[in-house]
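Consider the tokenized backbone below.
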């Protein structure tokens, strides 16, 4: 029988395919996305990732002993690896990371995640669409001809990132096994986060 995380990610595949068809993602894949659009997206994603680190930290504060190291590692990886990539790409696109202001989609998504993270199991389900979704997108996207977009895709197609995403699913399964979350709650949080993921590509 499929695990809870497997059931959720199977349920989420149509949403990932919708992201793949979104004009922003399709432009990245072709390599012809307007750099101004990607610059704006980078600024919003930078602000999102700052709060994503806070989500991991909030969950780490509630984690069972066996999960604490994983959540600290996820916060560390997001802070040092993903944000380093963003700072590097931001310089190439003249993005203003420190002057950026959250758009409506970013505010709605981060407020949702931070609120979800007040409950350990719900928070794990809410963060899964970002980790799993980007790993899945990275695996689906062909290497773009534009080197900067190719570097961005390669980050999320990397097996190391896939391993982190898989561990997020395992954490949720283990929390479910320990009755730290029920399936309806996890499904509602997962679906809501998926909707935020798709909306996030509507760059302001």
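A designed sequence for it:
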């Amino acid at each position: 029988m499929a695990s809870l995380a497997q059931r959720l990610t199977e349920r989420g595949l149509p949403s990932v395919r919708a992201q793949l068809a979104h004009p922003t993602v399709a432009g990245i894949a072709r390599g012809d996305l307007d750099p101004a659009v990607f610059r704006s997206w980078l600024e919003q994603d930078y602000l999102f990732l700052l709060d994503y680190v806070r989500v991991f930290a909030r969950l780490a504060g509630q984690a069972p002993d066996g999960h604490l190291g994983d959540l600290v590692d996820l916060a560390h990886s997001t802070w040092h690896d993903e944000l380093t990539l963003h700072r590097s790409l931001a310089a190439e696109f003249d993005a203003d990371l420190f002057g950026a202001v959250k758009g409506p989609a970013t505010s709605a998504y981060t407020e949702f995640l931070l609120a979800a993270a007040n409950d350990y199991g719900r928070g794990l389900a809410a963060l899964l669409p970002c980790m799993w979704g980007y790993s899945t997108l990275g695996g689906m996207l062909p290497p773009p001809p534009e080197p900067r977009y190719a570097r961005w895709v390669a980050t999320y197609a990397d097996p190391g990132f896939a391993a982190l995403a898989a561990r997020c699913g395992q954490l949720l399964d283990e929390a479910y096994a320990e009755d730290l979350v029920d399936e309806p709650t996890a499904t509602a949080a997962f679906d809501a986060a998926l909707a935020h993921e798709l909306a996030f590509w509507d760059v302001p």
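The CA atoms of residues 91 and 138 lie 22 Å apart.
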